[in-house]
């Protein structure tokens, strides 16, 4: 059947209207059976692996009474702040030197930590990738540029150690970046910065990180340092709580311009 | 087409898509059903509670049952996957994709393609997962990997395991299957795709599709695409592909995790292309049915089937 133009149009209209429905809304779809039992043979193959996974991944880690969340539109990524705080702490521990900034990418955080007792599996879901903690050197001007790029491309990637305030309108915006304690950043000073091998390698949103000098590849995966931090908290009988917001202050119209990719400083 | 004809045509599509298919009597005509997944992301088990509308859906053992039921009803079937089999649950972290590929073989997959996340542990580990699947003792044969826009010159172990296209013969028709992968930049760390170059997918697909049509004389051309459904002009995608590469009948897409209920039909130089993608995590199984007679597609339809337990 060669489709007539009218039928092509109708088909397109039909599929567009179906596409607009949320997943789970049924159109003319009739499953072979309403409920599908598990195939016994395949289930038998999976069972021992599932048991092994369950044994290692069901191990309890730490209580997170309120959970930690990436934040909805317009909210700060407090889960990301925690991850970057842990990165900064771990980087200081392995280098024995102050690390002034840690920055990661929100896209690499694959799930929220729901309230309650966290298990090993929750950290794997949050951080499934084998990304490694890397410590580099940047000057203050480059630190400012890193934060700037993260705001322009992604509305501010999760960071630890600095505070950024954007003011004005999408057409005329000003940016103030200081260290977290409010002291100014000396553009000429050399500082240590923690990030992931993914971002340092040029992945995602922050090209200036590629300029990092004296890279120190720690051999620690981001996942491992998060697991270690949870273990430390539990040992000290502490709960895991989200860091306070306030690292990025960006007016809503500017956030929207960033989302529409229409914003620059 | 008036309303009555339109309703009648819907009826034909519904019959074509949901009733057992008759064996073709005319040797130059045939029917085939493409069953497919994309972005299964190591979701071996069904999604647990707290996952919104996909809670309780999916799971490889249930997919196996659904496939068995469908194969009992259907004639010629191809089982295909559009990539990103890896990454997403502890099963991947622990078993490095070996279990994913082995289960795909046990389920009787015919072919898959490579997504960006399939490189997450590097080329070496990807090859190891493929090897473990090849070496499995099982009645189903190993499945093939297809891609035509990666240059594997610097990665011969992987290159040997990925073919630019393959052809499968069924009663009354021949099917050509190829694949296209998304650019590595920004998605795969350089050390994880060492030795593999990326080429423009449209440029790479054009000669392959042309060859399948004109030299191999296939009746149906299927592309397994890990480019994404609609990249809004920022990168090559499935929606643009039919206008850029003539002669594709079906695009089984992935990467964007797009939930479609039925295939999107896009007109192209040789009729139309059906573009389909069924979410991610194995929560749905996609199905497209094609009836071919004397080299022409007589009917084409499809639907997404939830893997509901």
Low-pLDDT sequence parts of chain B? 1-24
Strand content of the residues of chain B, in percent? 25-35%
Q: What are the secondary-structure elements of chain A, in order, as H or E? A: HHEHEEHEHEEEEHEHEH
Largest interface: A-B, 59 and 65 residues
- Superfamily at the CATH H level of chain A? 5'-Nucleotidase, C-terminal domain
In CATH, the topology of chain B is named Purple Acid Phosphatase, chain A, domain 2
Helical stretch count of chain A?
Answer: 8
- Please report the number of helical segments of chain B: 8
Average predicted confidence as pLDDT of chain B: 90
What's the Cα radius of gyration of chain B? Answer: 19 Å
How much helicity do the residues of chain A have? 25-40%
CATH class of chain A equals Alpha Beta
Structural class of chain A: alpha+beta
What does the average pLDDT of chain A come to?
Answer: 86
Gross morphology of chain B: globular
CATH class assignment of chain B: Alpha Beta
The residue ranges of chain A in which pLDDT falls below 50 over 5 or more consecutive positions are: 1-30
The domain count of chain A comes to: 1
Strand percent estimate of chain A: 15-25%
């Amino acid at each position: 059947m060669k489709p007539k133009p009218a039928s092509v149009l109708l088909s397109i209209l039909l599929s567009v209207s179906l596409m607009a429905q949320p997943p789970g809304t049924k159109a003319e779809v009739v499953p072979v059976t309403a409920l599908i039992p598990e195939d016994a043979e395949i289930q038998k193959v999976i069972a021992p692996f599932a048991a092994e996974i369950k044994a290692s991944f069901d191990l309890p880690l730490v209580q997170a009474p309120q959970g930690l969340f990436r934040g909805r539109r317009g909210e700060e990524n407090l889960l990301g702040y925690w991850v970057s705080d842990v990165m900064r702490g771990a980087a200081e521990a392995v280098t024995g030197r102050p690390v002034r900034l840690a920055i990661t990418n929100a896209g690499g955080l694959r799930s929220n930590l729901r309230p309650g007792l966290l298990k090993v599996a929750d950290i794997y879901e949050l951080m499934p990738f084998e990304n490694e903690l890397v410590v580099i050197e940047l000057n203050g001007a480059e630190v400012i540029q890193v934060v700037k790029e993260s705001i322009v491309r992604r509305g501010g990637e999760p960071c630890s150690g600095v505070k950024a305030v954007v003011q004005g309108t999408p057409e005329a915006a000003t940016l103030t970046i200081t260290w977290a304690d409010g002291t100014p950043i000396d553009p000429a000073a050399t500082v240590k910065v923690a990030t992931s091998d993914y971002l340092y390698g040029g992945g995602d949103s922050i090209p200036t990180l590629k300029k990092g000098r004296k890279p120190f590849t720690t051999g620690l995966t981001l996942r491992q340092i998060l697991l270690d931090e949870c273990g430390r908290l539990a040992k000290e009988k502490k709960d895991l709580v989200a860091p306070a917001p306030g690292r990025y202050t960006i007016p809503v119209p500017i956030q929207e311009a960033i989302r529409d990719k229409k914003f620059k400083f | 087409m008036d309303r009555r004809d339109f309703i009648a045509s819907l009826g034909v599509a519904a019959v074509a898509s949901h009733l057992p298919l008759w064996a073709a009597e005319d040797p130059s005509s045939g029917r085939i059903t493409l069953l497919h997944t994309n972005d299964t992301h190591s979701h071996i088990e069904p999604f647990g509670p707290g996952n919104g509308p996909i809670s309780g859906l999916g799971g490889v053992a249930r997919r196996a049952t659904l496939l068995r039921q469908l194969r009992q009803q259907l004639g010629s079937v191809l089982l295909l996957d559009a990539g990103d089999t890896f990454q997403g649950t502890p099963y991947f972290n622990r078993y490095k994709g070996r279990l994913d590929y082995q289960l795909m073989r046990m389920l009787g997959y015919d072919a898959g393609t490579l997504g960006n996340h399939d490189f997450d542990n590097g080329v070496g580990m990807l090859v190891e997962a493929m090897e473990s699947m090849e070496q499995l003792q099982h009645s189903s044969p190993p499945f093939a990997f297809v891609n035509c826009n990666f240059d594997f010159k610097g990665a011969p172990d992987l290159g040997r395991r990925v073919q630019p296209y393959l052809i499968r013969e069924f009663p009354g028709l021949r099917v050509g299957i190829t694949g296209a992968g998304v650019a590595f930049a920004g998605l795969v760390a350089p050390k994880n795709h060492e030795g593999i170059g990326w080429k423009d997918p449209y440029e790479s697909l054009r000669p392959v599709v042309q060859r399948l049509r004109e030299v191999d004389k296939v009746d149906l051309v299927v592309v397994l695409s890990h480019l994404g459904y609609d990249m809004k002009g920022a990168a090559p995608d499935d929606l643009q592909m039919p206008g850029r590469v003539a002669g594709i009948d079906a695009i089984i897409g992935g990467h964007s995790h797009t939930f479609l209920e039925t295939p999107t039909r896009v007109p192209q130089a040789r009729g139309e292309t059906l573009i389909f993608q069924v979410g991610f995590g194995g929560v749905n199984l996609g199905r497209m049915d094609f009836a071919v007679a004397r080299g022409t597609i007589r009917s084409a339809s499809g639907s997404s089937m939830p893997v509901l337990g």
